[in-house]
Amino acid sequence: MAEEKDVNVDESGAGCGVCLIKPWTKEGCIGDGTYNWLSLCKPSMPWSKGGVEPPMFLGKDAKLPLVLSLSMGLQHALAMIAGIATSGGMLIAGDACFPWQKDSEMCAAREYLVSAAWITSGILTIIQVFRAKILGTPYYLGTGLISVMGTSFTFLPIARDMVISSIKEASGAGLCVAGDCAGYGKEGYGRFLGTCMVAALLEIGIALIPAKYLKKIFPPVVTGAAVMLIGGGLISAGIKYLGGGVFCAENNESKQAAIGFGPQLCNENGDVVLSYGSPEYIGLGFTVILMSTLIQFFGSPFFKSTFIFWGLMFGTFIAGVASRTAQEGDKTVCSAEPDAPCIGGFANAVPGKAYSYFNSAKLDAAPDITFLWTTSFPLGFAPEYLLPLIIGFFISSAETVGDISMSYEASELPTDPAVSDLDSRVQGGLLADGINSLLACLFTSPPNTTFSQNNGVIALTRCASRSAGFACAFWLILLGVLGKVGALFTSIPICVVGGMVLQCFSMVFVSGMQMACQKVTRRNSFILMLSLGLGLGVAMEPHLFEGGGGFSFYSNNLAHNYGFWPKKSTCEVFPSVTKTVDQSCEYAVWFDDGTVNGSTTTFTSGDVDSDTCVGIGGTYTPESSTKTPTESCANNNGFCCITYDSSKKMGRTTLVMILKTPYCIGFLIALFLNLLLPEDKVKEKEVAGQVATA
Description:
The chain is mostly helical.
């Protein structure tokens, strides 16, 4: 039977009492019929008056029958698996699959990383949903709410930068074989994981700060700004995926300038290779958005709470049945035409042949069952990225404070300060977040955090029971263990993924907006104005602090030569150009009458020597060669330094990473302005008006 009220389970026992009601009985499996399934599954109609009757409310300690618990947990899992897959390694490893920055080992780990991210999120969700008091201390571990864990979007740009930089450095040093920097991208990812483990100690320390100071550091305007900047900074990536892929979107002009022909083709959409922004890509991406919109019109609460997943599945289905007939001059991926010459990662398509947007090679090769550590990465430490990652954990902490507050409110727990235990739940959630992020890195997955979209699932289904949180963890682990499911996600065309992640990132932005607008004052408006202005500004124009930007081809040359802090200023030993001067003899030209005609002639015959040259009245120049250092990078994809000054390079990487990452620079501005700007004095008239309104 589904219980509507809390039963005050003793949380000192980690809340195990909510798991099942009368297990192994009919009532324990399917309930006694009191739960109104129709309210959860009845479709809505746009013309219906009054809307659909909301489901009955289930409190955080309500015991649910097994079927209901699994159904509620499935909604939470479906609401987040796509976001976990993209930020949990699919996009990170995908950056190593391009011919220009290839690491075949890292690229092959993409399917594993998706599965590992789901398994990790499930395990860590169990820790977060449990609420256990640490013996001998006033501290808790976990929120005791449906606080579902997932890989954090905050660290996605830093992880991608570390993997790509590691590959490019290996390529520039001549360590790659036939263009394949095998293993070097994995080393970069291993350094990311190791550095995150050190930086995660910050969040663990933040969790031990008294609540009154946490409220001062992380008020809604700061947490909201942080979450908005995470979403806003990644929306541009969603648009790039929608048009065919990030790499081809960023490098059209750069490739043209460096190589002389273009455009840069997209190779992440099955066997169909087109330029960025092709209508075929955009059309497939919009099928996801169309289905998501239709679900909002006609869907039941179950479908509305999981619309992201169903939209992605519909787009995947369309991509699976669709194909494109090649025309003269078209390209395809090399695996589609193995007998044709492969140049730059592409082969000539056969005119008149139909090519699919869905390539099942990864799905066929994936194992049926997988688990953590079937693929490993060498842990390392990158001091130049430590400060940006520390800032990332600071931002993640701010996001977690806001998420837990929203979960607490959605769970309809008391807000009266006299009886509210929100502060201890925030402390427990932050501590679990920090420990879970450290564990996630040990599990080969990026740091984890609470997912804000699950608060919307709680509000829509009106189920706050933690048994649904445990069921969600079960589904996540199950999906991760089934290796074919992870491979399926990595086989989805990136333009279809773009239709999904664009909505995910926009949803994150809207969640931040809801947090930030809880208390709109002149002071808070100024904080938001400045932090969002600079944060979203660098998202729109990433070249502001890094010359040509962090892209490829000619852009890397520009980043070496120009910008806020050019790379060349951190170089110790530049490559030299050797100039060779052949021996020569310069002598005067005479007329037949014995007069000089005013000109000279130079000859470089191998027979000439200094004596002969002097004998005819010439000037002899011996053979010589000189080496001149070349500081300017002309056309070498940014590889224009032999040896860097390690301390200067670390300083530049740290500073540029902070300045060009929207939520780093924007969050720091919001944080410091909030601590430094004085609060506005509230007028008595305004207070009276607020009381009267209340």
